[in-house]
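sry for the spam today, last one i promise. struct tokens for design, 218 residues
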């Protein structure tokens, strides 16, 4: 059973209903001028279905996968209550249950980053396999230098567990990518990619959070 199932969703936490602002703006920018009914979007690590609800409402054909049974059950119920449809599967991103060349866009919002770099490599192979030629991946990953990992013990390359920050401690193993890690993951698999490091500072210029926003094209 996954740590997200036991520590988070089964306790009724993070059963979010509304999409993240970055997903909304990324999807609107990506789909501008295109016929949504023809576009297939997969969210990996789709959690409670909050982003899928938005995608389905906006007329995309959408699919999601997550390791958590409770999150998937919530997602299916939440969408069906509003008469919306999505192909939601229980499973691991490392073994996607869809055929090659199925999707136009894959969204990863802070899901893949909750795995070790060694486990992320095959997940990216799977994402590339299910994307159509010309398909795109939009990914948000935690960045090296984020305050959550600073005082913690590294378990494996740039990955930490047992955080003192309660938000991170319930999520289990978390990988914080530096620029070299991002290039290692994206350069060999995608035709081109753009990455931006989004750092949020306190009024006293202390780092509150650090994340990568990555857009990759096949
Ligand atoms: C921070 S939550 C994000 C949920 C959703 N993407 C969002 O933006 O609200 C991370 C999600 O990724 C899922 N996850 C992490 N690793 C996974 C894996 N290897 N396979 C499937 N799901 C995974 C977790 O179960 C959890 O639901």
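last one done:
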């Amino acid at each position: 059973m996954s740590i997200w199932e036991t520590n988070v969703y089964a306790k009724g936490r993070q059963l979010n209903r509304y999409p993240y602002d970055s997903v909304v703006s990324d999807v609107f920018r990506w789909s501008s001028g295109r016929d949504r009914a023809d576009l297939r979007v997969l969210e990996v690590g789709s959690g409670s279905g909050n982003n899928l609800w938005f995608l389905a409402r906006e007329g995309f054909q959408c699919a999601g996968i997550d390791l958590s049974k409770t999150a998937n059950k919530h997602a299916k119920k939440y969408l069906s209550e509003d008469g919306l449809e999505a192909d939601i599967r229980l499973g691991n991103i490392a073994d996607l249950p869809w055929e090659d060349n199925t999707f136009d866009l894959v969204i990863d919002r802070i899901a893949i980053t909750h795995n070790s770099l060694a486990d992320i490599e095959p997940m990216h192979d799977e994402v590339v396999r299910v994307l159509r030629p010309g398909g795109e991946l939009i990914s948000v990953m935690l960045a090296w230098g984020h305050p959550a990992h600073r005082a913690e013990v590294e378990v494996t390359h740039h990955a930490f567990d047992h955080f003192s920050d309660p938000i991170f401690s319930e999520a289990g193993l978390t990988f914080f990518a530096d620029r070299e890690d991002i290039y290692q993951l994206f350069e060999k698999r995608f035709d081109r990619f753009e990455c931006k490091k989004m750092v949020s500072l306190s009024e006293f210029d202390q780092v509150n959070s650090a994340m990568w926003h990555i857009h990759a094209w096949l």
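The chain has a mean pLDDT of 96. ok im logging off now
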